[in-house]
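User: Okay, second chain of the day. Same drill as before: sequence in, structure tokens out.
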Amino acid sequence: MELSTQQIEQLRSELLKIKADLEKKQQQHGRAGNQQASGIDNHPADRASDYEEEVMQQTFQLADQQRLEEVQASLKQIEDGSYGICIDTGKPIPFERLAATPYAKRTIEAQREFDERAQALTNEQAHKETMRSLADAETAAQRNSNTTARVREEHDAF
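Assistant: Same drill. Structure tokens below.
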């Protein structure tokens, strides 16, 4: 079912509100990032805590930036008439889904399939990394054992 003009306007209003909130957060992040740390040399544990906090803030900022880009894309889709259409299936995204997540790009079913494929790729990549590290460890162990054997041979020669 296609979205009515009233529904689209309601969703546009919500997207604009989300956009304004995200842009405000970005400005606040920018101001906080420009503040200089005090010249006092902190304890290593304090620096580690500061680093952890900085990494968390960067992660939040990245998530906010990605969400802002999704919101901007949705607003552009409203303008060009393609808003509310699933990018995977071409089916209309139900109003209820868009009301909950106005920047949704997929129907719930398509999003579920997308997430499952992404998880499978993540699992496959993790498996490859594990196998690579095991192979590297085995190679290192072999080198160590060959090296150890040569050292013993040389030691026995004296």
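Residues 108-157 form the longest helix (50 residues).

User: Thanks, on to the next one.
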